[in-house]
């Protein structure tokens, strides 16, 4: 039975995965009840969780699926947020119209920045992407083109309007983020089963072998960066709406480190793992707010312990999937 | 606008500090192929320990030179112990794990040390007293060389020369180089690789503690996040020189220090980090293994 399933649909081979395919949507539907059941603080936390889940999943495309050590992912998140903020504040665009521009700009930046560097070996790539992050934060702080608002950033971004009606409350934003998260999760599932996703995995596990089979590794690596940056850009727009403000402080090297850690602590190329990692980094600290000053200390200890006890992450992707 | 000679003096001072810290990164990378992200924080821990020795008053009766030597010694010992503990608890269990697991453990260790410092010494900037070192300044051809700069330049170069001698002319040093080139071959030749790794986690932090305390004395302040900014610069220096290569780290530190000094003097200091990374990216695109790095076939 199991073997038969293996042949029929390679990406959903085991029974536990089939159960998971039911549990996942069930949890998502349960999540829709958050605004009815929980306090306003938790509605905001739920919305932010959805946004960071999208960024973490996009980081996972580059890092966990295509195997490139990108430690500057906050750049693309930030570009999306700043694009939406600038278009809506300086050019009076309705914020929903800025979404395609944010996605395209972030994806283009991902492609342009990665094209010359994807040939670099793992650790060198990691350091160069840290550099991109540092340069991005400085550019925003130094008020590039006089539009980024310097160190304070930009504020007063209004919520989305639809049919002349403004949807700006925390629960409106929560539902929007939650729906976008579902779309992204559906896309990630498709990526798993598509030839693009398989090619990413192939390049990650054996670039040389992939190349000998005619895969243009460089193009696919740039594509992974562009795809991942575009998704991060989408999350950036949601972030700008959620906080109605953007500032360089949200897109620092530290934030990129946290995203990087989420993927590895949760489990590379594992959607449930990445979601679990995001929850650990962004939801669990909200439960222990009175210990806020110990937050990063606890993160540090948790990162070391998880890596020692489960070097593949808490919820690793199943082996043998090519 | 300062003279070229002045920029040179400033650059060699900062470059010497970068080089001392870069050596710790490059030696660990050499033997473990691991970016020790916690190294910068260990170095700044040295600055905090040194400051505490200098200002706590426990050693009140001592004269300033003796007190300074004591501050350096205690900082070196504490940071060496911290480095050894770091290796034993955060890295040793991951020797056979996937490489990225060790990187995340290093990032976790960095957060742990950084926030540990914050909880012990408070998040505020800690200021070094201004009467510790003589305020003597020498004038050389229109440029000024202060006592602290002379101390740092002489200290850094003496330590680097000592390390160079140690690595190239002693048995232990030869074992370190052999392990960096090929760990398995070194083990087959009878090198105790575990002892080499332990040694690297003592030498690196000792040099780093001196570097960190130099930073504190030079800028007369220290704060808990300083480890990431200076650590990153020193790490870039190690890469510029060719990571894993000990003379490369020294050269990279000096190149980066001079480059920073001239960039800050003639371009703009608010873009300093951006300029540093631009230099790094340019060098990596032209010479992907750094200035002194050997061109080796990529391991598949």
Beta-strand portion of chain A reads: under 5%
On the 0-100 scale, what is the average pLDDT of chain B? Answer: 90
- Which structural category fits the helices and strands of chain A? mainly alpha
What's the shape of chain A? globular
Please outline the major beta sheet of chain B: 2 strands, antiparallel
What portion of residues of chain A is helical? 55-70%
The level of helicity of chain B is over 70%
Number of helices of chain B: 11
> Overall mean pLDDT score of chain A?
88
Number of helices of chain A: 15
Give the low-pLDDT segments of chain A.
Answer: 1-14
Largest sheet of chain A: 2 strands, antiparallel
Structural domains of chain A: how many:
1
CATH arch. level architecture of chain B: Orthogonal Bundle
Describe the structure.
Chain A: Its main location: membrane. Chain A: InterPro entries: ABC_transp_permease, LivM-like. The complex is a heterodimer of chains A (322) and B (300). Helix content of chain A is 70%, strand content 2%. Chain A is mainly alpha-helical. In chain A, helix 4 packs parallel to helix 8, helix 6 packs antiparallel against helix 11 (217-243) and helix 12 (253-266) crosses helix 13 (271-282). The longest helix of chain A has 27 residues, at 217-243. With 300 residues, chain B is mainly alpha-helical. Chain B has one domain (4-286): ABC transporter involved in vitamin B12 uptake, BtuC, CATH 1.10.3470. Chain B has helices at 4-32, 39-55, 64-91, 99-121, 147-169, 171-181, 183-188, 193-219, 226-241, 246-266, 272-286, and strands at residues 126-127, 137-140, 143-146, 221-222. In chain B, the strands form two sheets. A two-stranded antiparallel sheet of chain B has the order 1-4. A two-stranded antiparallel ribbon of chain B has the order 2-3. The longest helix of chain B has 29 residues, at 4-32. At the A-B interface, helix 7, helix 12 and helix 15 of A face helix 4, helix 9 and helix 11 of B.
């Amino acid at each position: 039975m199991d073997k038969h399933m293996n042949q029929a649909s390679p990406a959903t081979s085991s029974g536990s995965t089939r159960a998971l395919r039911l549990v996942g949507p069930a949890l998502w539907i349960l999540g829709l009840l958050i605004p009815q059941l929980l306090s306003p603080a938790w509605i905001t936390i739920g919305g932010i969780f959805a946004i960071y889940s999208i960024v973490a999943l996009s980081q996972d495309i580059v890092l966990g699926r295509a195997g490139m050590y990108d430690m500057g992912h906050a750049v693309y998140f930030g570009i999306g947020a700043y694009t939406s903020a600038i278009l809506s504040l300086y050019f009076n665009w309705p914020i929903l119209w800025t979404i395609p521009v944010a996605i395209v700009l972030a994806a283009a930046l991902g492609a342009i920045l990665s094209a010359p560097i994807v040939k670099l070996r793992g650790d060198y790539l990691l350091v160069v992407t840290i550099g991109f992050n540092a340069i991005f934060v400085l550019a925003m702080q130094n008020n590039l083109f006089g539009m980024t608002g310097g160190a304070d950033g930009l504020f007063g971004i209004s919520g989305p309007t639809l049919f002349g009606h403004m949807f700006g409350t925390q629960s409106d934003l929560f539902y929007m983020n939650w729906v976008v998260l579902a779309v992204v999760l559906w896309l990630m599932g498709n990526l798993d089963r598509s030839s693009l996703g398989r090619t990413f995995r192939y390049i990650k596990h054996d670039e040389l072998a992939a190349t000998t089979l005619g895969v243009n590794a460089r193009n696919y690596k740039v594509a992974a960066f562009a795809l991942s940056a575009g998704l991060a850009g989408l999350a950036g727009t949601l972030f700008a709406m959620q906080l109605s403000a953007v500032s360089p402080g949200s897109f620092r090297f530290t934030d990129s480190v946290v995203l990087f850690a989420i993927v590895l602590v949760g489990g590379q190329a594992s959607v449930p793992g990445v979601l679990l990692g995001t929850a650990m980094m962004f939801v669990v600290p909200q439960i222990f707010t009175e210990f806020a000053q110990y937050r990063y200390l606890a993160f540090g200890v948790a990162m070391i312990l998880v890596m020692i006890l489960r070097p593949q992450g808490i919820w690793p992707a199943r082996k043998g999937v090519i | 606008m300062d003279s070229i000679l002045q920029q040179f003096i400033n650059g060699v001072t900062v470059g010497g500090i970068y080089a001392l810290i870069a050596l710790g990164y490059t030696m660990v990378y050499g033997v473990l192929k691991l970016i020790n992200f916690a190294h910068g924080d260990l170095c700044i821990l040295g600055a905090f320990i040194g400051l505490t020795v200098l200002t706590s008053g426990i050693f009140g009766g001592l004269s300033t030179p003796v007190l300074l030597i004591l501050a350096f010694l205690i900082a070196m010992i504490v940071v060496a112990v911290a480095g050894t503990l770091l290796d034993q608890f955060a890295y040793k269990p991951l020797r056979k794990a996937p490489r990225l697991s060790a990187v995340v453990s290093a990032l976790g260790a960095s957060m742990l040390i950084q926030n540990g410092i914050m909880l012990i010494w408070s998040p505020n900037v800690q200021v070094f007293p201004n009467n510790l070192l003589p305020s003597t300044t020498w004038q050389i051809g229109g440029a000024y060389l202060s006592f602290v700069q002379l101390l740092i330049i002489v200290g850094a170069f003496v330590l680097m020369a000592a390390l160079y001698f140690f690595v190239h002319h002693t048995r232990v040093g030869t074992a370190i180089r052999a392990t960096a080139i090929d760990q398995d071959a070194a083990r087959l030749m009878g090198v105790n690789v575990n002892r080499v790794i332990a040694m690297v986690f003592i030498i690196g932090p000792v040099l780093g503690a001196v570097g960190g305390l130099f930073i504190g004395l030079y800028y007369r302040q220290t704060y808990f996040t300083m480890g990431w900014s200076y650590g990153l610069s020193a790490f870039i220096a190690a890469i510029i020189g060719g990571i894993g290569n000990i003379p490369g780290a020294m050269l990279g530190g000096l190149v980066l220090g001079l480059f920073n000094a001239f960039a800050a003097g003639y371009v703009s200091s608010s873009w300093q980090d951006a300029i540093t990374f631009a230099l790094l990216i340019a060098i990596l695109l032209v010479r992907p293994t750094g200035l002194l790095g050997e061109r080796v076939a990529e391991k598949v």
